[in-house]
Specification:
The chain is an alpha/beta fold. It folds into 2 domains: about 375 residues, 3-Layer(aba) Sandwich (Rossmann fold); about 55 residues, no CATH class. It is built from 16 helices and 14 strands. Strands 5, 10, 11, 12, 13 and 14 form a 6-stranded mixed β-sheet that branches. Strands 2-6-1-7 form a 4-stranded antiparallel β-sheet, sandwiched between helices. The chain has a two-stranded parallel sheet with strand order 3-4. The radius of gyration is 28 Å and the shape is globular. The termini are far apart. It catalyses: a cytidine in rRNA + S-adenosyl-L-methionine = a 5-methylcytidine in rRNA + S-adenosyl-L-homocysteine + H(+).
Length: about 500
């Protein structure tokens, strides 16, 4: 009996010793608190980089990015019951972006026309008596036009109308104006000069020439911190893609009008309204009645909703996304056999496509740092330690895809390059690098479209970063009242 008792005590002692030796498990809250997640690394990188780029407005962009709720849209599925879908969306209080754009565009034309008339009259007669009355008339007219975008029992408040008529007169715009300092690509090269003079700490790098018998291998180095020289990528190389070439110029042409496709119906809620659209349901025609463009593969489906493409080719280099695209297309379009010869879903590297002069429209939606996703998800996060090299080489990879698209597009065709990143390196920097390389390697002539004026009427729902010195494109900035994006896009047209 005493032997059993002693054995039990010994087992208890052994268990206690093991527990004290190893401490808390990896899932314990104290251990999880010490762990640096990929999203934490992303936020640290953004604070370091974007704070110097966007200056005073960065804290407001940062707060918007960290919010769980973001704005999004619903696109009516034209292959389902369109009228039923539109009625349901309007009853929810959603607005048709096309109607909203046209209303603000017309109001802007009237304001500009009236402003020119008043200025001319002031020069002749110095009479401003009609200015105030016209302003009141214009406000009433705009309010009545906006009211038509809502259901009959939904009142468009005067406060909302005033905010929209002022166009750039809310708190977010004041913040942008205060931080009006444009981007200066040359200044970011100071990082390169700093690294040129700095001494790199190489004591933790195991050089391939040392061999396995080296005494350095006996030193304790955590496996997560070990870097082989063959895989070492200098972070300064990431900034080399954003350089200013004095010997390269591209013609930038202003685009005054944004032409909405007749059949494309996009709905969203008003500013500061973060209501969620219900989960898409099936209509009487057995097709889902609308789609929400939060899905990564929706861009091809949205293009089909314009009813304009004769042939659509949707390509991705990831087989998993290609399979998912087939599933989604089948859900919204019905039997894909009907689309045979008109819809192609392919799995290839965008750098290797060879269909020259076949396409007249190409959307280059490249892999990027996906800033909003990187701050909310650890799965598949580009800021994981295992993806450092991939992240630093993103601009080079993006530029090669864009360059190939510029070579494939037919004369007169349009290439749109887009990212969901705030990084000027991945945005203007990549466009500049691709255009410069195309200029050096071919006789193709390209022009860049300046969409600032064309997108002006959409400033009522989006905040465009027009004051940060972008040369080749436009960017949607996420802010408190308009938490969209980020999204950068550049429109490039091949002349010959």
């Amino acid at each position: 009996m005493s032997q059993i008792f002693c054995r039990t005590n010994i087992n208890r002692l052994i268990k206690i010793c093991v527990r004290n030796r190893h401490g808390h498990g990896p899932d314990h809250w104290s251990m999880a608190k010490k762990k640096v997640r990929a999203r934490d690394k992303a936020l640290h990188h953004f604070d370091d980089f974007y704070a110097s780029v966007y200056a005073g407005i960065w804290p407001h962009i940062r707060a918007a990015l960290l919010k769980e709720d973001s704005k999004y849209v619903a696109v009516v599925n034209n292959f389902g019951d369109v009228e039923e879908t539109v009625d349901k969306l309007q009853l929810l209080g959603a607005m048709n972006i096309k109607d909203l754009y046209n209303a603000h565009k017309q109001a802007k034309i009237e304001r500009d026309t009236r402003s020119g008339f008043i200025n001319q009259k002031n020069n002749d007669d110095n009479d401003e008596s009609n200015d105030e009355s016209f302003g009141s008339l214009l406000e009433r007219k705009t309010k009545s036009e906006l009211q038509t975008l809502f259901p009959s029992d939904y009142e468009a408040t005067s406060n909302m109308v005033k905010q929209k008529n002022n166009n750039n007169n809310d708190d977010d715009d004041d913040i942008i104006k205060k931080s009006h300092k444009p981007l200066d690509p040359v200044k970011m090269r100071a990082l390169e000069s700093d690294i040129a003079t700095a001494k790199i700490d190489e004591h933790r790098i195991v050089k391939p020439s040392i061999g396995l018998t080296s005494s350095s291998l006996y030193e304790y180095i955590p496996a997560t911190k070990l870097k082989g020289l063959d895989d070492y990528v200098f972070e300064s190389d990431h900034y080399n893609y954003y350089t200013k070439s004095a010997d390269f110029n591209i013609n930038v042409v202003k685009e005054n009008t944004l032409n909405f496709p007749e059949h494309l119906k996009i709905y969203t809620f008003d500013s500061d309204n973060y209501s969620r659209f219900p989960i898409p349901k099936r209509s009487k025609t057995d097709d889902q009645y609308y789609i929400a463009t939060t899905m990564l593969i929706c861009k091809s489906l949205v293009a089909l909703q314009t009813l304009m493409p004769k042939v659509l080719v949707s390509n991705d280099n990831k087989l998993g996304r290609v399979n998912q695209m087939n599933v989604v297309m089948n859900e919204y379009l019905g039997d894909l056999n009907v689309w045979e010869g008109r819809l192609f879903i392919t799995n290839a590297d965008g750098r290797d496509l060879e269909d020259v002069n076949v396409y007249n429209k190409i959307l280059v939606d490249v892999p990027c740092t996906t800033d909003r996703h990187s701050l909310h998800e650890d799965d598949n996060n580009i800021f994981k330690p295992t993806r450092i090299k991939e992240r630093l080489q993103l601009p080079e990879y993006q530029a090669k895809i864009l360059l190939n698209a510029l070579k494939l597009i037919a004369p007169g065709g349009t290439v749109v390059y887009s990212t969901c990143s705030l990084s000027p390196i991945q945005n203007d920097g990549v466009v500049q690098m691709a255009l410069k390389q195309l200029w050096e390697e071919s006789d193709s002539v390209m022009i860049v479209k300046d969409m600032k004026e064309a997108l002006g009427p959409l400033s009522c729902i989006y905040k465009f970063g027009n004051d940060f010195g972008l040369k080749y494109g436009q960017i949607v900035l996420p802010v408190k009242k308009h938490n969209w994006g980020p999204m950068y896009f550049s429109k490039i047209v091949r002349i010959k």
